[in-house]
Design brief:
CATH architecture of chain B: 2-Layer Sandwich
Oligomer: heterodimer
CATH class of chain A: Mainly Alpha
Helix content of chain A: 40-55%
Number of helices of chain B: 4
Shape of chain A: globular
Number of domains of chain B: 1
Distance between the termini of chain B: 91 Å
CATH superfamily of chain A: Cytochrome-c3 Hydrogenase, chain B
Number of strands of chain B: 7
Order of helices and strands of chain B: HEEHEEEEHEH
CATH architecture of chain A: Orthogonal Bundle
Number of strands of chain A: 8
Largest interface: A-B, 41 and 35 residues
Radius of gyration of chain A: 22 Å
Number of domains of chain A: 1
CATH superfamily of chain B: NADH:ubiquinone oxidoreductase Nqo5 subunit
Helix content of chain B: 25-40%
Strand order of the largest sheet of chain B: 1-2-5-4-3
Strand order of the largest sheet of chain A: 1-2-3
Strand content of chain B: 15-25%
Shape of chain B: elongated
Chain lengths: 393, 180
């Protein structure tokens, strides 16, 4: 009998593959079931949002950047809005800051719920998706309440918020917060001690803290490997220093550790929301009082000439931003979401750049999955929580 | 720590580098010449007073018609020292910037994206190919002289047009084949 001929096999995964979270293409080189190398191809969802933003006025960019990371829309717009406000030197009323904190945390919950549902579904727990999406539906309803738009509310504006909170907002959020912790217990009851889930995730896709940092990974992936870096604690923005919360960490750095970190983050988010709700009065200031940026109230527009002119200027020409550049990071659901904005002093941005955590997570993917089994690729992609809209922009 | 303090530390570590502090509204900004970029980056990463262990972001801005035209912008983060730093390198259209892949591994794709979008060459980069744009794309879209809306001929195929004579001939030919 002759020698058995062996050679590696090349398998194409994606771009249309249900577990690549959109349109990510991976070319896998396999030796049996063991991965020899991975080559990710991205760019299928590149829509040139950063170039488009250069043609728009400052305020018009808000809905554009929300469409980058479509699962964490308000994390994008918060970074952009804070960045422009830094260039303008604006300071927000405390109520605006608290509302922003509350909505950013609700956004984190919505994003983590989709992560939980898809991640668990991809490694076999199909029913998780339905339970997670059911809870997320309530958060979408809150978005609809504040802005009439479920995915991309564009509620954060440069200079404050779009308008005041609607009636019934506090009740809707409180009802969600009352309901959610028990649901989270149910989710954990299904997964945390589930033998099949743990065998698929423990010791899989391990990354060390040094590797995570050198690949530029911060956020939940690094925190699952022992980092305590959280932008909300290290460089507090929009009033996070006044909230009491912990930064959950783990040390294993595997898929299961990332799962535990994100679940614990959801509990912390609920804690922050609980603190935020009583601080937000049902009515009050919803924008700063800088007349360059914020249009005057409608009753003044109809009665005062100056206000009418200001209203007309803001809606026709927009406002100008002093020349310079700024980078403002926020802690998005996937890690550090940062916005780098360059202004040339005109009414349109010169350059807008989003720091995309998914982009760096996909870059590091070959290093994380090499030497593992092909079935683990799906678990690792899910646990890295990549969003292709964020990656390709 | 502000930019002059960081430059003071770097002067001892990278002799001969002409570092200039830049204006900023958020955190320290320094301009680094391309020739000493890698040495400066290594010093920023390794010195215990700085320890910029994470390369957060690499991007660029096109300041046409200024010369040199581009600024490559590196955002660094020091988790041990809770510091941020913006490092800028000025570069012309023909010029190139040395890659910092050897200092922070994550620079690979970030620099590739900057090349893809701006056409700024990173000397020594191991894989400078298109990343977001298709492989056969012409031009670098984020440049200011790149048109916003391009009228590119769409690839369509002419509708099938057959004259009556050709149609009959086709039918005839088909019939002959069937007869066999």
């Amino acid at each position: 009998m002759g020698e058995i001929r062996t050679e590696t096999m090349t398998v194409n995964m994606g771009p249309q593959h249900p577990s690549t979270h959109g349109v990510l293409r991976l070319v896998l080189e396999l030796d049996g079931e063991v991965i020899q190398s991975v080559m990710p191809t991205i760019g299928y969802l590149h829509t040139g949002i950063e170039k488009t933003a250069e043609q728009k006025k400052w305020q018009q960019v808000v809905p554009l950047v929300e469409r980058m990371d479509y699962l964490a829309a308000q994390s994008n717009s918060l970074a952009y809005v804070l960045c422009v406000e830094k260039l303008l030197g604006l300071d927000m009323p405390q109520r605006v800051k608290d509302i922003r904190v509350l909505l950013a945390e609700l956004q984190r919950l919505a994003s983590h719920l989709i992560w939980l549902g898809t991640h668990a579904m991809e490694i076999g727990a199909v029913s998780m998706l339905f339970y997670a999406v059911r809870e997320r539906e309530l958060l979408m309803n809150i978005n609809e309440l504040i802005a009439g738009f479920r995915f991309f509310p564009s509620y954060f504006r440069v200079g404050g918020l779009r308008e005041d909170l609607p009636r019934g907002f506090h009740e809707a959020v409180t009802a969600f917060l009352d309901r959610f912790p028990t649901k989270l217990d149910e989710f954990e009851g299904l997964l945390t001690k589930n033998d099949i889930f743990r065998r698929r995730t423990e010791g899989v896709g391990t990354i060390s803290l040094e590797d995570a940092y050198s690949w530029g990974l911060v956020g939940p992936i690094a925190r699952a490997a022992g980092s305590d870096y959280d932008v909300r604690k290290y460089f507090p923005y929009t009033g996070y220093e006044a909230y009491d919360f912990k930064v959950p960490t783990a040390t294993e750095g595997d898929v299961y550790a990332r799962y535990r970190v994100r679940i614990a983050e959801m509990r912390e988010s609920v804690k922050i929301c609980r603190q935020a709700i009583p601080r937000i009065t049902p009515a009050g200031p919803w924008a700063c009082d800088d007349t360059r940026v914020v249009p005057p109230p409608k009753d003044k527009v109809y009665t005062e000439m100056e206000a009418l002119i200001q209203h007309f200027l803001i809606y026709s020409q927009g406002f100008t931003v002093p020349a310079g550049d700024a980078y403002v990071p926020v802690e998005g659901p996937r890690g550090e979401h940062g916005c780098y904005v360059v202004s040339d002093g005109s009414n349109r941005p010169w350059r807008v750049k989003m720091r995309a955590p998914s982009f760096l997570a996909i870059q590091a993917l070959p290093a994380i999955v090499r030497g593992g089994l092909i079935a683990d690729v799906v678990a690792v992609i899910g646990s890295n929580d990549v969003v292709m809209g964020d990656c390709d922009r | 720590m502000d930019a002059p303090a960081i430059i003071d530390i770097l002067h001892g570590l990278v002799p001969g580098a002409s570092l200039v502090s830049g204006q900023s509204v958020d955190f320290a900004t320094i301009y680094v010449p391309a020739a000493t970029l890698v040495e400066t980056a290594t010093a920023l990463r390794d010195d215990p007073r700085l320890r910029f262990n994470v390369l957060v972001e690499v991007t660029a801005a096109d300041y046409l018609p200024r010369d040199p035209r581009f600024e490559v912008v590196y955002h660094l983060l020091s988790i041990p020292n809770r510091l941020r730093l913006r490092m800028k390198v000025r570069v012309t259209t023909e010029g190139s910037v040395p890659t910092v892949q050897g200092v922070w591994r994550g620079a690979g794709w970030l620099e590739r994206e900057v090349w893809d979008m701006f056409g700024i060459v990173f000397a020594g980069h191991n894989d400078l190919r298109r990343l977001l744009m298709p492989e056969d794309w012409d031009g670098h879209p984020a440049r200011k002289d790149y048109p916003v809306q391009i009228h590119k001929a769409t690839q369509t195929y002419e509708p099938l047009e057959v004259s009556e004579a050709e149609f009959r001939a086709n039918i005839e030919r088909d019939r002959v084949k069937r007869a066999h």
